Amino acid sequence: ELPPSEFMQVADSTWLVLSVVSNGREPPGCQATGVTKIARSVIAPLAEHHVSVLMLSTYQTDFILVRERDLPMVIHTLAGEFDIYREESGECVPVTCDDMSNGFLEPKPAASPTLHPVQSPQTRFCVLTVAPDTLPAIATMLIDVLFYSHSPPREADASSQDLDSITFFSFSLIEGYISIVMDAETQKRFPSDLLLTSSTGELWRMVRIGGQPLGFDECGIVAQIAEPLAAADISAYYISTFNFDHALVPEEGIAEVIQLLQQRQDSGR
Length: 269
Hints:
This protein is of the alpha+beta class and 269 residues long. It has a single domain (7-149, 161-268), classed as 2-Layer Sandwich (VC0802-like). It has helices at residues 39-48, 71-78, 135-147, 155-158, 184-187, 221-231, 254-268; strands at residues 15-19, 53-57, 62-67, 84-88, 91-95, 118-119, 124-128, 170-174, 177-183, 204-209, 237-240, 245-250. Strands 6, 7, 8, 9, 10, 11 and 12 form a seven-stranded antiparallel beta sheet that branches. The chain has a three-stranded antiparallel beta sheet with strand order 1-3-2, covered by helices on one side. The chain has a two-stranded antiparallel sheet with strand order 4-5.
């Protein structure tokens, strides 16, 4: 419904959402455990088959977006490990490889993925949710933070390799569930009794992936971060965006995360 505009860039692909559930149930929303829980079983196999993904962690669960044209490859890749369903009129209908075999081609060997630079600003972030019925109470503040509080970043900032801080605010509303990521200073502007977080109330640090806009054709970007963190059993909260990817990790583990990712960079050279 949005009118065409010279100020709006739209990717040329249509994307579908994969939601990974355990035993038929969504994981509880008490703690953002994030992308590492599905790194080995979903993200790494898709990267090996040259399928590009967008990752969206929310307070409640995690979603993987794949391009509609890649769906046959996605089904082929994951059917051996997962029961796969598509949603039709609110009902879950089983999907098999046979359903998606028409026109399927064997994948070509994927080129070695590019190891993108990783930046780690000093900003501390919160992962929060809010009850939908209390949303009107913070709507004015949300609009101010989203659209008016921050000036556009300078072009020079995009290539900076030593960021002291970063402007980042994420708001998602998915099937009635609200998820918010904001820096700790911005959180102080909101009524504390309306914003809900995990029982530990922990703060998160960010690693930003990419020295320039990543685009959507390259695969293995999420796996580059998720696999070493999964091997070390470190939680991560991952958000892909149009220009860069962002992974949030618990504040107390940031030094170990930077070390792990630096080792991967060095081994890839």
